[in-house]
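User: For documentation purposes, I need each entry recorded in a consistent format: the amino acid sequence on its own, followed directly by the corresponding structure tokens. There are two entries in this batch. Please keep commentary to a minimum and don't merge the entries.

Assistant: Recorded as requested. Entry 1:
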Amino acid sequence: MLALTRTAIGSSPRVGAPRVRARAAPVATAPPTALPRRRTSTTSTRTRTRAAVVAAAAGAGAGAGAGASAAIPQIAAAKKAAAATVVAATPTLAYTLSTVVGSNLAFPALWALTALPCCLAFVNPVYVFSVGYGLAVAYAGAGLLALASLAGMTIPKLVAYHCVGAVVYGVRLAAFLAWRSVTWDQWGKRAEKAPEARAKSLAARVPVVLCCSLLYACMCSPMVFHVKVAHAIGAEYGRVVGFGLAVQWCGLLLEALADHTKSAYKMSEEGKNRWCDVGVYQRCRHPNYLGEVLFWVGLYVAGAPAMLVYGAVSFAPATLGLVFIVWLMTSQCAKQDEKQAERYGENPEYNAWVANSGSLTIK
């Protein structure tokens, strides 16, 4: 190549010969948005680059000295164009993830997000309904915001409050349950009697992880549709979304307050042999379960306008998840009332408290 260039510069131009401006041979490049099925090999790219440079140098040799000098920057441009082919031909992970939220893969992606923390069941199967449950909700909220950001979406404030509420709820609940598993003496005994603890082998725990994570994805699905069609929701639904968010955050705060109140009371000398009837427990026997129900009802209502816009099919997973959690909390209230009645039923103070308080409601 250098020999050809030197020949072009050192030779004398012919008299009367027209000056020919050297041009680099065009190099085909892939469109920036194209995603080829396989990456262009390094060998073929080098071959095209070398051919382009030789062709440019040969064209320079046929021209005059001034034309040869002009060919030098064009040779460099040919190298850059050929190298750009490899960059354009390589799909990136960020580009792939950025298309998830706006596609039909949004719900499977949500399922994958909730499945990650549920894998704690391989350490202890009980974690899938405790720490793994809280982290699954947190992963769902944070993951959806991250995917929307990768897609270049403008995230409205109401959508942010919706997802951030899930993150705060999940992190707080997971931290509390992890702390209780260490500090509560009876946690180990009760964990051994839990239904999920029967999954001893690795193969038996896989269905538990898949089923529980799918359930959590259904419960969190209103956030998916809110992220997908937030900008298509009419202004008339703004109050509905705002009301749902208010209920969601009130439930989050109520459950956190109830968990803290009962834990502190049970660690005191008085609470070791007595039911908890202080603070938020004065008028409601299970305010922690009430907060749980309010959180999920609010999350559902805040996403209802988006589900209306997206289509009736979006209500199926969300409604399934909401019905399950309401049924679970209601049944747990009945079981706890039955256990406390067996233990404290002969105490007049306990009976008076039951008469003046609601099980899952404030009386």
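Entry 2:
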Amino acid sequence: MRRLRTHAPRRRAGSTRCGCGGGRTSRARQGEPSQRGAGGPVSARPAARRRRHCRRGRQTGRVSDDRPVGDAAPGEVLSAVLVDDDPSAGLWHLVESGWAAEHLPELPALKLEQDPIHRHKDVLAHTVAVTAQSPPRLRVRLAALFHDIGKPATRSFSHGDVTFRNHEAVGSRMTKRRMPALGYDATLTAEVARLVYLSGRFKGYDRGWSDAAVRRYTRDAGVLLGDLNDLVRSDCTSRNPRRVADLHRALDDLVERISRLAREQATADERPEIDGERVMSHLGIAPGADIGAALRFLLELRRTEGDLGEAEVLKRLDAWWKAR
């Protein structure tokens, strides 16, 4: 099985549309994502237009690159759909045409799962909406597509309510199995599975997080922090503008706290280029207030001029000491 690049496949010149979705297809955006997530309302195509695209896809049998669906690796087909500006029509076609049932059965399985939280007809509709309003970067789009696939296996009707406890962890394991089967490489698979695992971590922030909890969220996300924030921001498909605004405001607050704590930690981690023991041995003085003053001078020296090397630092220290 061919292994896929972790970005959108190249298209032949003149091929600008995705055959199954009908929308213009763009490559995944390059560069690192910002910490502040994006994602506005979904501009869904009318149902009639979506059906027209689906009929055209079935008639031509093409998804992208002027190649028949059967000749493309499943992951290439999926990637071509996902990096479209609005992948909604393409995703619905993959489900309605039977492609997903064959290559990505976890997706049509979501049609059976009623979602009392998002008030969609089913979790599949919510998943398509979240994917469509997430930034068109392949890693984020894949995470959005897979973020709820653990719900069928975790659905419970205890206490009269429908719950999906630990569906993120279950979905993460399912992602690790499905993505290699589609042809994605190990690195991208691990990253997407990690995002799926962390996708529900933001829940409860509005009830108050300590600084330690914010640091843990940041540490657990690591280099995926920007993508995780983008996924969280996209995972709100409520028709209530106030609810959407509240989530975005809470996420903005979290991002600001992450930045503030990072600045505070960077300041706390700063050290002079030489330590107190070296200062005492060089100046021939005992512990006391003079050592503290010398270390403050050396710290400011490093902040303003960077690393100078021990010889130059000692030279500057001597000049400072004589001028006291």
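Summary note for entry 2:
The beta strands are 62-64, 67-68, 155-156, 163-164.
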